[in-house]
């Protein structure tokens, strides 16, 4: 597993109590932490600190979280988890369209935030992880190898990236459009049914005949359920 002290986390929030609570908790977990109390300070801090993860409040005076998110995504590779007191679908969609990688509504569980941070590290910074155990799966990104129940799966390069993406995001419903964006890339001009073809192949290699591991959520996409 990765060493937390290698991971830099920037917290941008205009509530001092949130900054204190999160910075103390994350430092206790071993992460490097920097804080900023407004959007502009957050952007400046990101340029100096070069964080791997940014925990970003949406509702801030002046430069709000949406604008900060867009600027940070233009700067470089950073995983952004947005925090908001709102729980409206439109707000989430707006943040995700601007490049946010995850979303949490206040109040939230610190343990859930830790889990989401770890998921983002697995997904966006796998080189810092070495090999990762996720349920019955062991993902070795350096060798581009996935073991399932101690058995090395014979996967093509695309099958590897697809299964890795689905496993590290286990429990979440992933639409075909999202999978295409994350695995094939935004400039991929193919059809969504190619996802079905690859999922079918991976299920065969997992011997998942009853679709208990990779479930089809009708009208929504796919979800990996771990034992």
From TrEMBL:
Domain Response regulatory: from-to ranges: 8-121
InterPro entries this protein is in?
Answer: CheY-like_superfamily, OmpR/PhoB-type_DNA-bd, Sig_transdc_resp-reg_C-effctor, Sig_transdc_resp-reg_receiver, WalR-like, WH-like_DNA-bd_sf
Quote the Gene3D superfamilies the UniProt record gives.
3.40.50.2300, 6.10.250.690, Winged helix-like DNA-binding domain superfamily/Winged helix DNA-binding domain
Keywords associated with the record = DNA-binding, Phosphoprotein, Transcription, Transcription regulation, Two-component regulatory system
Q: Does the keyword Cytoplasm apply?
A: no
Q: Residue ranges of the OmpR/PhoB-type domain?
A: 129-226
4-aspartylphosphate occurs at: 57
Protein name in the entry: Response regulator transcription factor
Task: Name the species this protein comes from.
Answer: Brevibacillus choshinensis
């Amino acid at each position: 597993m990765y060493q937390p002290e290698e991971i830099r986390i920037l917290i941008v929030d205009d509530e001092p109590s949130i900054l204190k609570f999160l910075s103390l908790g994350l430092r206790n977990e071993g992460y490097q932490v920097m804080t900023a109390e407004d959007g502009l300070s957050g952007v400046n801090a990101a340029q100096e600190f070069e964080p791997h993860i940014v925990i970003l409040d949406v509702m801030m005076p002046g430069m709000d979280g949406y604008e900060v998110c867009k600027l940070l995504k233009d700067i470089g590779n950073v995983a952004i988890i947005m925090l908001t007191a709102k729980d409206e679908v439109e707000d989430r969609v707006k943040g995700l369209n601007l490049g946010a990688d995850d979303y949490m509504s206040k109040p939230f569980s610190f343990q859930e935030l830790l889990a989401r941070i770890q998921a983002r590290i697995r997904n966006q910074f796998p080189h810092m992880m070495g090999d990762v155990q996720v349920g019955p799966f062991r993902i070795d990104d350096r060798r581009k190898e996935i073991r399932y129940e101690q058995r090395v799966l014979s996967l093509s390069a695309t099958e590897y990236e697809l299964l890795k993406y689905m496993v590290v995001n286990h429990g979440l419903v992933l639409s075909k459009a999202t999978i295409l964006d994350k695995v094939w890339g935004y400039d991929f001009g193919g059809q969504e049914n190619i996802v079905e073809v690859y999922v079918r192949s991976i299920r065969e290699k997992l011997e998942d005949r009853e679709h208990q591991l990779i479930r089809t959520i009708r009208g929504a996409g796919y979800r990996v359920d771990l034992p």
